[in-house]
Amino acid sequence: MKYILKLIVISLVASAVLLAGCISQNTDTQMPDNQIQNNNQVDYHQNQMGMGNGGIVGNNGDVNVSLMCEDIDALPQQSISEEEKEGLLEMREEEKLARDVYLTLYDKWKLQIFKNIANSEQTHTDSVKYLLEKYNIPDPVESEEVGKFSNPKFEELYNNLVEKGSQSAVDALIVGATIEDLDIADLENWISKTDNEDIKLVYGNLMKGSRNHMRSFVRMLDSYGANYTPQYISNEEYEQILSSSMEGGGGPNR
To answer: 105 and 165 in contact (C-beta within 8 Å)?
Structure first.
């Protein structure tokens, strides 16, 4: 009987040692790539800092559309030129372009950064839409369907960017940085061509959001050991964006 009990004790000890080895092995095993990628990202809700303090723009680049609309309404409806109308029409679809590409690349790679920033881009395009409504300009977005645009150049851009971003996760992140690069350059161009305070308000806040998005994409690229070279803004402006903190706030009284 003592011999049997001794065998049972030895067996239990051996099992415990084996189980500990398995646990250690599993702990030391490298996490799946998608888990590493997602752990490298700042939590979406943490990125809303700046919104809770009455700011229009959050650190994630989101626009508080309700506050934006309040501030737009508080500003006078000035006369609007054809060039200013063109800028609003372009930016309405360009912000949708960003949203659509990010939604598609999220479906492809399941990187949370694309889903988060796609949600943010929705607030950007909604902000421009409110200006279109204020100035009684027909909305060029006839369908919210992903990849559908009134302006053929945006459909072509969508197809080209998705094709490039589908090659690898790094290529997808480079596409994200490229879109924000283009967005910043175009917003700077259009804001220089308007004297309407409400349009400048919206463009200025969208630029803050786009700079925050660029910082996020470049940070993710860095975690992959990759980098981005600006194509639309200057190297000096690009370096200044990266060396500065996330932006928030916005609005004449915020």
So the answer is: yes
Mean pLDDT for 102-123 is 98
Residues 6+ apart with CB under 8 A from 90: 151, 186, 190
pLDDT in tens, 202-224: 999 999 999 999 999 999 999 99
Which positions ≥6 away from 124 have C-beta within 8 Å? 61, 63, 95, 98, 99, 206, 209, 210
Give Cα 171 to chain centroid, integer Å.
Answer: 15
| 74, 169 contact by CB (below 8 A) | no
Contacts of 95 (CB under 8 A, 6+ apart): 121, 124, 125, 128, 183, 206
